[in-house]
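Good morning,

Both structures are done.
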Amino acid sequence: MVSLYLSLSGLTVDPEKVELALCKLDQFLDEQHNITDGVWSYFIPELGEGGACSLFGHLQEAPFDLSTLLLPSDKNRIALSRLQSLVNFVQQASNVDWFGIYQARSTSEGEQLLKLAYSGAPSRPLFPINQKFAETSNNIQVVMSGRARVINDVQEYVTNGGEYYTCDPKVQAESCLPLFDDANNCVGIIDAEAFSKDFFTPNMLALLIAVCIKIPQYLPE
């Protein structure tokens, strides 16, 4: 399972580090005896002209409601609860400044990445999955290609000509990793952001990969 994920995502990380992280994650999940309702709504920023970027620090008055895109079934309630537990695990184990789990879903406006659970500052709930948006969005590049993207120095990356979608100007490092279903299709991503450079060490990536291996079994219907 670990070797397959590494092959599909294009990441080069010691498989033993990932296996160790998976053991810690399984232990954490075993200790989660109570299943509570997941977070079904959250505040989101206003979007800039044309909806291409978020206006950081300017929140919309009404929160975004996941039930507009997800059936509020018992299965989905449990799924969102489990996903939030995984977010909490990552935050506690890494102290990463922002972390989110996204699922690719069909909407009335086409295929989009939907933010299901996260920790950190408010951010946009949906990303259009199309080639135009992929030009500046790591999230969309990853879900369309199934290949991970790790940027440990955002400023250097942009200086060297890389396109970058800025949500929080404090972010100095970012990792976007794909999520795969049983048929090896990319069905979503995780996005992790840090306010310091070189945050995503091999040990940190091993932790994120372990979570990516676990997440697909908890994605909502």
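Second structure follows.
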Amino acid sequence: MRTDPGTVDWSAALEWAQEKLGDPAGDVRRLSGGWTSTMLAISGDGHEPAVLRLMTNEPWRTHGEPLTTRESEIQRMLAATDVPAPRSLALDATGERCGHPAHLMTLLPGRIEPQRDDAASLVRFAELLASIHAIEATIDVRSYQSWAWEAKFVVPAWATDAGLWEDAFALLRGEPPAYEPCFIHRDFQPRNVLWDRDEITGVVDWVETSIGPAWLDVAHCATNLAIMHSNEVADRFADAYVTTTGRPPQPYFDVMDVVGFLPPPGRASFITDPAELARLEQRLAVVLPRCR
């Protein structure tokens, strides 16, 4: 076996994965990205390509058993739908064999292309998200959780408009608007969508799947697009979703999503680029007035 997973010894996890795949030979490479996990691609002559998720990063590792279990259950359910999700192959949710909570699944073709901001791609994003929201869950799926916790209601040191953030915190201390619950991905964004040329080939990372407001998925993708590109790109995606589904915007959830990007006290932010932080604040400046 030729491996290049980094400096950490993943031998126990790979031994388990290859037992499940039924093929001791193959190549292993570490996939890029992954805030929560180490993702290893495994190929071999005797099985289809697979991905091994190892929940190695805190605080997700502590909650790795329910997270990996949820992803496995959701993927098994999605196998009966047209949504292009990986198929779950095996689960070591407690990490008894792998040393970390682990989920083995199929490797989908394609690659992430977060740079896409053209009109056709944004429409495809919107249509894909609409198809996810149309799914009727056949298993119990948890209710969504806000990522804008009270502990995060602290004006960030890099902010240029403290009042803007304080107004957002005040809004979120109130009750959210009524919404029609539906199946949501909960982390739908360009880094979780795979492309092959101009076709979407997969949606990955189903650990946070929930029942909740459709607009929270729209908001999360829009915030990511605003951070990576601009508010104009974010709004074009949101408009495409409204055109596709007829669902009206719920800007309260846009504000919830922006604040959710703030780190809790004592933790570093996922976003470190000053330009991206500025665009996050600019997104808040656009969506907060829409709540009035």
